[in-house]
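Data deposition worksheet. Section B asks for the primary sequence of the deposited chain exactly as it was used as input, without tags or linkers unless they were present during the calculation. Section C holds the resulting structure in token form. Section D is free text for depositor observations; keep each observation to a single sentence. Incomplete worksheets are returned to the depositor.
Section A, Depositor: J.P.
Section B:
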Amino acid sequence: MEHADALIEQNRLLGELIAEADPTLEVPSCPGWNVHQLLTHVGRLDRWAAMIVRERADARVEVRSVPDGKPPAELPAAVDWLTDSARLILDAVAATGADAPVWTFLGPRPAAWWVRRRLHESVVHRADVAIALGVPYAVEPEVAADGVSEWLDLLAARPASDEAPPLAPGATLHLHATDEGLGAAGEWMVRGGETGLAWEHGHGKGTAAVRGTAADLLLALMRRIDADAPGLQVIGDGPTWTAWRDRTAF
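Section C:
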């Protein structure tokens, strides 16, 4: 999929949803935030990512140093600011080069890494606003499936710690998107090991398996819907799935 086009589209959809909301509306899936704070968070970190790429940063950039890091007070102008924030990332990547190494919280990565990361930030936070407004949420299966893969990439890059791992060594979690047309991109085998997690696309018998649309799988992994939400089918060892969710906070 083309991450740049998807980022612009998801950011636009997020802005349209926010434009219909009361900025003071609380966002229950982001405790302590209202819609205005969510908008500020997404736009500011988009601009932060653009600054990292533009400056070819090799160390963490202070978020407070980001130029124009606060949205205008008026909601229509704030939505325009949010839209501009996403475009700044693409402009920065085009100027710097998609393959140029820059700082990320996982270590040096190609500049284009930030496009995918910010895309899925918009995807999930759009769900947050939809939940707050009580309106339906939909996202293309291809985008949602890529969001699942990106999330698993982030988790697999975490170093092992003394805390309980998401999966016990030798345990497996099989995720299966039921959308038509995804093929191998819609199935994931996740394995626990002594040094952390590993995953690959594929079909197999897991200690636990979860079936649902790619959108529902993504929202469940991100704890935006319950582990036993109606759209999900959990097969095998249910506690493996619930422990996974409990131990994979961002």
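Section D:
The domain at 144-246 is CATH 3.30.1050.10 (Nonspecific Lipid-transfer Protein; Chain A).
The beta strands are 101-102, 109-110, 172-177, 187-193, 196-201, 208-212, 233-236.
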